[in-house]
Amino acid sequence: SGHHPLPFSRVVEIDPSSNQIVWEYADNPAYNFFSPYISGARRLPNGNTLITEGMFGRMFQVTPEGDVVWEYINPHFHEDAENAVVNRVFRATHYLPEEISQLQ
């Protein structure tokens, strides 16, 4: 057909008992959020979701309604094996202040 949609990523939560999608995050427009590897998502105790868009060094938190309430982009760039300048990150972990003994 000649139609080639732009690639995009999304975060999907599936109920394992029903195999139904119970929550989903995608950006608008969809192609604003895309990372083909080294990415992930974790549900936080407050109900928000921490998402890692690893290829572009972006970590962000969204509410259950899909609103971005926090974002951080890795400012540290380096040259990779193919001589591309990148700021990739592998994974983000959320810590509560009481989980960090140095803050006590």
Explain this structure.
By secondary structure, the chain is an all-beta fold. It has one domain (11-103). The protein is built from no helices and 8 strands. The protein has a 4-stranded antiparallel β-sheet with strand order 3-4-5-6, with no helix packed on it. Strands 1-2 form a two-stranded antiparallel ribbon. It has a two-stranded antiparallel ribbon with strand order 7-8. The model has no long low-confidence stretch (mean pLDDT 91).
List the helices and strands and how they pair.
Blueprint lengths: L10 E5 L4 E6 L14 E4 L5 E5 L4 E5 L5 E6 L4 E2 L5 E2 L18
Antiparallel strand pairs: 1-2, 3-4, 4-5, 5-6, 7-8
What is the structure about, briefly put?
Strand 1 and strand 2 form a beta hairpin. The chain is built from no helices and eight strands. The termini are far apart.
